[in-house]
Amino acid sequence: MEDAWVYILSATSVLFLLFLFILQRSDKRNLPPSPPSLPIIGHLLLIKEPVHRTLQSLSHRYGPVLSLSFGSRPVVVISSPSAAEECFTTNDLVLANRPRMLAGHIMGYGNTTMGTAHYGPHWRNLRRLTALEILSPHRLAGSLAVRQEEVRLLLRSLYEAAGSAGGGGYARVEMRSRLQELSFNIIMRMVSGKRYFGAAVNAGDAEMAGQFREVIKETFELSGTDPGDFLPALRKVVDFKGRERRMVDVAKRSDGMLQGMIDELRSRRDGGQEVESKTMIDAMLSEGYSDDIIKGHVLTMISAGTDTSAATIEWAMSLLLNHPDVMKRALAELDHVIGRDRLADEADIHKLPRLQSIINEALRLFPPAPLLVPHESAEDCTVGGFDVPRGTMILVNAWAIQRDPKVWDDPTSFKPERCEGLEGDHSGRLLPFGMGRRSCPGAGLANRVVSLGLAALLQCFEWERVGEEPVDLSEGTGLTMPKREPLEAMCKARECMIANVLAQL
């Protein structure tokens, strides 16, 4: 009897696979080219870390518009600027949805955050709030003092470190943690009105900040590709590497901290205590949003706005240390435009084209999101002359586009001059913040933080590599593509900046 069941199941499986094969062969749609796939799992075994490099290799072989199958989910990979531009202009509305993922359901409050929600009234309300109330030019101008103070605190810590150095005055400093504290404090002060790192912070807030950073790190780690998103039938019986249990744990810890933040601000408001400025939580409470929606939005702001800005400054400094001639020219621009008796301000940014070119080139080589946040087609459409069925996940490989030799001359080299005169989104060639209606609304804030921070570091200090060898530019793992090894450098205060600037911090 048992043998009969084995034969029946085997025959059924063969007939099912044969049916799928015939169905695929009879499909009259002009789908993008695709590698050979395996039954049920499709191309999942082809996807290796780092995913953006794997997809680039496949695109080189099969074309810039590539069709893959991640288990039961159809995927189209975009690796050309023209196809990317078509996605976010002609098909911008059709591709405005986000694919439903387990991470967004568990850690993103049921896919209700601005980054995970489908396109619709709820998402438009969040986007409107963000664009008009939280990250508008007027609101960013109002929080300028926050960014200025945090940059000065960073400079003071480096000045103190350099002052304690013997000999030639160079101190060996680790930059990643300092830059992460800079960006984290800026975001947290805009969100809640409090800073969480630094000398003036109480032990409880500092401990919470450390826990928050750990939660954000785990959130990014767990937000990557999960087999359960593509093989839902197996997810009911298998918890791949305990990921779902870890997601639940991270979500519980994150929710507790976020709820505490909201409750604290609500009690300060009810008690009539003053805060340094109207915060994001204030704005959302005034709009009548539920606590869960506020927590999801805060989590999105912290996740998207901390590691990305810090990593961009770290990559830019690493590249400049490997190209001291470029650093020298950037410093000459700063001295000429700003002088040596004050720090560059945000009003000066547009007067510093060389600095902006350095930042854009760093973003080109090391985008904070090498794969843009996935999109999903709400209906059938065409991209690059190929049919894209409804419900297809769209992955835009910004890393591949920004290193495409057909688009960029000598694409792997650091040449900031190539970015001079580029405007807007550069017609799909430069995509660090995406394009279209679901592009990153924090681009303006990120540019302010990175420009202000990088300018101050170059103005106030002399920088050298720790040794003779170039700074290692190997990529680490994670959605924001950090450096594999945290940047360490030799730092010395510039004599011309001590009296009028550094000594006054």
Automatic annotation (TrEMBL):
It is found in: Membrane. Heme binds at C440. Its cofactor is heme. The chain crosses the membrane at residues 6-23. Pfam families: p450 (PF00067). One of its GO terms (molecular function) is iron ion binding. Keywords: Heme, Iron, Membrane, Metal-binding, Monooxygenase, Oxidoreductase, Transmembrane, Transmembrane helix. It is a single-pass membrane protein. InterPro entries: Cyt_P450 (IPR001128), Cyt_P450_CS (IPR017972), Cyt_P450_E_grp-I (IPR002401), Cyt_P450_sf (IPR036396), Plant_Cytochrome_P450_Monoox (IPR050651). It comes from the Eukaryota. Its main location: membrane. GO terms for cellular component: membrane. Belongs to the cytochrome P450 family. This is Cytochrome P450 81Q32-like. It comes from Rhodamnia argentea.
